[in-house]
Design goal:
heterodimer, A: mainly beta, 4-stranded antiparallel sheet, 4 strands, B: alpha+beta, HIT family, subunit A, 6 helices
Chain lengths: 51, 324
């Protein structure tokens, strides 16, 4: 398991967890830390609505 | 058998991945391989009890970083090569019963960020010349899993339709000195007849010579070759415009409209593409009415010449009425 350097994105700071499975396939799990510093999986509803 | 074979009569490669015949096909919701793992005795592809967005290498890849050797040897007439490249599955949300149109714009924005991440990482690989993100949505399109997801392919060369568009763009550049996509987006903005929606940075329009009913293209108005060239505001706008068009699609016939979503960005083979590569998304539905599909029949399949049923200006006017 490995975490790359977090990246600033449109939705806050994106963290990428890298997992190599037993069969060798790569799995990436993306999570975002929002402007309030909260993080974790789950959909944000902030900014909903068309441009 | 997994390998690529070159058709000497067309110059196009076909990728064979016969193991894909055995892949999971429309499982019931309780056996969805893309849902979070809730029972350790029955692990899914995502070993977490929830997640934002997940990406994993396809269990049945058409293209792979470590492909097997071809089943047979090539000849001077028939070229064969390992199916080298990348094939990833991109899960949009942990919600099984949602569609991309159902998701909040912020979640679509996260998807845009992940597309950019995969473009950067796969595009940096020496065996990947073109990174292609796409979504097949709906059984009419041939989807095998209902859980909202897309895929990212890393092709070892620039695929045929992309190469065709690049040739047209290069010819336009030589003749006019401008990017054809920049000119198209500007023309659609000026004309307005085929415009569906205009965001702060991104326009959505039915293309002048649309091949599919209610086909819509999304393009950033300034010249930008990939998602990596967009700032955060532009990415947010792309997500918002995409979300609005998908919601309009679902209002078109009163059901969740199947489509193919294609994300086109600059090739990553190190070639001279900057002046003619322009980031754009293509949405290609098949429904020409609520109950009739546009089939790729004789003219389209045999001759590669599309015959369309819906006038682009009428499609755009209808979609404009439906944009939320």
């Amino acid at each position: 398991m490995d975490h790359a350097e977090p990246l600033d994105t449109a939705l806050g700071v994106m963290d990428v967890e890298r997992v190599v499975r037993d069969d060798g396939r790569l799995l990436l799990l993306f999570t975002w830390e929002d402007a309030t510093g909260q993080s974790g999986a789950g959909e944000s509803t902030a900014g909903d609505g068309p441009a | 058998m997994t390998e690529r074979r070159l058709d000497p009569t067309t110059g196009e490669w076909t990728t064979f991945a016969t193991a894909r015949q055995d892949r999971t096909f429309l499982p019931p919701a309780g056996l969805c391989p893309l849902c979070p793992t809730t029972d350790p005795a029955r692990p899914t592809e995502v070993p977490r009890d929830s997640y934002d967005i997940a990406v994993f290498e396809n269990r049945w890849p058409a293209l792979s970083g470590h492909p097997p050797e071809p089943d047979l040897e090539g000849t001077s007439l028939y070229a064969v090569e390992p199916a080298r490249g990348a094939a990833e599955v991109l899960v949009f949300t942990s919600r099984h019963d949602a569609t991309l149109a159902d998701l909040p714009v912020a979640q679509v924005g996260k998807l845009v960020d992940v597309w950019a991440h995969r473009y950067a990482e796969l595009g940096a690989r020496p065996d990947v010349a073109y990174v292609f993100a796409f979504e097949n949505k709906g059984e009419a399109i041939g989807v095998t899993l209902h859980h909202p997801h897309g895929q990212v392919y890393g092709y070892p060369d620039v695929p045929p339709r992309v190469a065709l568009k690049m040739r047209a763009a290069r010819k336009h550049l030589a003749r006019h000195g401008t990017c054809v996509w920049c000119d198209v987006v500007a023309a659609e903005q000026t004309d307005g007849a085929r415009l569906v929606l205009q965001g702060a940075a991104v326009s959505a329009y039915v293309p002048f010579a649309a091949r599919y009913p209610y086909e819509v293209h999304l393009s950033v108005r300034r010249h930008a070759g990939s998602l990596l060239d967009l700032d955060v505001t532009e990415r947010r706008d792309l997500a918002a415009v995409l979300s609005a068009v998908l919601r309009a699609y679902d209002r078109l016939y009163g059901f969740s409209l199947p489509y193919v979503l294609s994300v086109h960005q600059r090739p990553t083979d190190g070639g001279d593409w900057d002046a003619i590569s322009h980031l754009h998304l293509e949405l290609t539905p098949l429904h020409r009415t609520a109950t009739k599909l546009k089939y790729l029949a004789g003219s389209e399949t045999g001759a590669g010449a599309f015959v369309a049923d819906v006038r682009p200006e009428d499609a755009a006017a209808r979609l404009r009425e439906l944009v939320p």
